[in-house]
Amino acid sequence: AGIGAAYQDRPCIDPLDPDCPNSAPNYFDRCQAYAKFKEWNNALPEQNKIKLEQISKKEEI
User: Fold this and answer.
1) Of these four, 16, 20, 23, 37, which has the most CB atoms within 10 Å of its CB?
2) Are the beta carbons of 20 and 27 closer than 8 angstroms?
3) Where does the source fall among the domains of life (predicted)?
């Protein structure tokens, strides 16, 4: 009945969910997305570059 496959080959409801398997058709690869962003951002003139800041857990609340 295909019960053992679970959601391995089906789209994730939330592709940003860390539990979404990379075999899902709508899987979002954060590392690849960051690498593409970094490449794009580095090609911009210095005054147009986006500066990323790390948010600490205390600041999120």
Assistant:
1) 20
2) yes
3) Eukaryota
Amino acid (1-letter code) at residue 10: R
List the structure tokens of 5: 């496959």
Q: Which of 22, 54, 53, 51 is nearest to 38 (CA)?
A: 51
Number of domains in the chain: 1
pLDDT attached to residue 54:
86
Cα–Cα dist 42/47, whole Å: 11
What is the domain extent for residue 52? 3-60
Q: Per residue in 5-57, pLDDT tens?
A: 655 678 999 999 988 988 899 999 999 999 999 999 999 999 999 998 988 87
Half-sphere exposure for 15 (CA within 13 Å, toward CB) = 13
